[in-house]
Recover the amino acids of this structure.
């Protein structure tokens, strides 16, 4: 497969709490897979998870508000993993990491830090059931979205509300059994772009015509089809684990990538 502007696809890496996170190279896009599954008999006890001790007070409060133990576990492990990763990248302790979130929920490092990697670091997080993805890069905005394969009862209504006329026509032409996976892939594509921009879904989703994914996916990222570039964003897809779909939107820093800085259909 050829890729837009011959750019190599982002790489997926397995991550564990003991993993060493090496420094990013210029232009590198790295996506870390984090297992949020149960770890033992006491796994649903929030305080027993090692990640609990590195969360701040607001994160602990949020975790304890989650009713289901598995949701608490997933949140604690995911946020703890993010802190561990960021701490290694900026050479600080995970407890010292301070996060802030924009109006659309996009996370970024808060506080004043000396010149170096921290001001240039971009990252985004998504999780679904027992899997999370942490996408990181230098200088390039990005957004990642992840969904587990499942039937969405409101899929048709969502397509009518948040997808363009061309996308609606494509969805309607699919055989009913194919619509479940195609819908989730179309949804992650839009979410990845909107998360990269740091904006919400309402009123903007139809501005980015991503179409629905119908071609096969592998465990490695490949350029989305039929449109690998949407406006100023390059769009990648993968199946990071069986039964999961992931989409990654990365800011296109090539000159051609800024020809259309708004919305609409732009392919290459």
């Amino acid at each position: 497969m050829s890729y837009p502007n011959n750019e190599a696809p982002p790489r997926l890496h397995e991550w564990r709490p003991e993993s060493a996170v090496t420094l990013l190279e210029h232009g590198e896009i790295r996506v870390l897979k984090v297992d949020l599954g149960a770890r033992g008999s006491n796994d649903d006890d929030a305080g027993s998870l090692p990640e609990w001790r590195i969360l701040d007070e607001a994160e602990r409060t949020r975790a304890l508000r989650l009713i289901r133990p598995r949701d608490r576990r997933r949140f604690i492990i995911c946020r703890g993993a993010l802190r561990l990763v960021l701490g290694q990248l900026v050479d600080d302790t995970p407890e010292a990491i301070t996060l802030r979130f924009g109006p659309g929920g996009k996370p970024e490092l808060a506080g004043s830090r000396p010149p170096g990697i921290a001001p240039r670091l971009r990252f985004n997080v998504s999780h679904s059931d027992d899997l999370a993805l942490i996408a990181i890069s230098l200088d390039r905005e990005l957004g990642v979205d992840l969904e587990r394969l499942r039937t969405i009862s409101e899929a048709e209504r969502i397509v009518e509300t948040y997808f363009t006329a061309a996308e609606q026509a494509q969805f309607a032409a699919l055989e009913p059994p194919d619509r479940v996976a195609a819908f989730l892939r179309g949804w992650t594509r839009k979410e990845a772009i909107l998360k990269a921009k740091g904006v919400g879904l309402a009123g903007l989703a139809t501005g980015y015509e991503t179409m629905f994914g119908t071609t096969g996916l592998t465990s490695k990222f490949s350029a989305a089809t039929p449109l690998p570039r949407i406006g100023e964003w390059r769009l990648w897809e993968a199946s990071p684990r069986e039964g999961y779909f992931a989409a990654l939107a990365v800011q296109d820093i090539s000159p051609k990538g800024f020809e259309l800085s708004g919305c609409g259909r732009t392919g290459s």
User: Anything to note?
Assistant: Residues 257-268 have pLDDT under 50 and may be disordered.
